[in-house]
Design brief:
Layout lengths: L2 H15 L4 H13 L1 H22 L11 H29 L1
The structure holds zinc ion.
Zinc ion (ZN) binds next to helix 1 and helix 3.
Length: 98
């Protein structure tokens, strides 16, 4: 993704919901033709959208119940640890050069 891509992100999301205005369609298609990152992003959004629709339409019996609280708490705690490790890594990288 580059700066230009951020201009097309809204169009990318809009294109999933409704046909784009002709001028927007041309600009968006021209961008896709030269930007593999946006092609990947578009495919990912299509897959995500399809998955969400499938879950929405699945019989309730097939949708797993909400995660138990202890699992949610463990996920949150694991994500915090991962983030602190990442931030600590960044700081130690700077400390080495200082
Ligand atoms: Zn792009």
């Amino acid at each position: 993704m580059n700066e230009d891509c951020t201009r097309y992100l809204d169009l990318l999301l809009d294109s999933l919901d409704e046909p784009l205005a002709p001028a927007d369609r041309l600009a968006f298609d021209a961008h896709l033709a030269r930007c593999p990152d946006c092609v990947v992003a578009l495919k990912e959004h299509v897959v995500l959208r399809t998955t969400i629709q499938e879950i929405d339409q699945a019989p309730a019996a097939l949708v797993p119940p909400a995660l138990p609280e202890y699992l949610v708490a463990r996920c949150v705690s694991a994500m915090r640890l991962e983030r602190s490790a990442f931030e600590a890594g960044g700081r130690s990288g700077n400390a080495r050069t200082a």
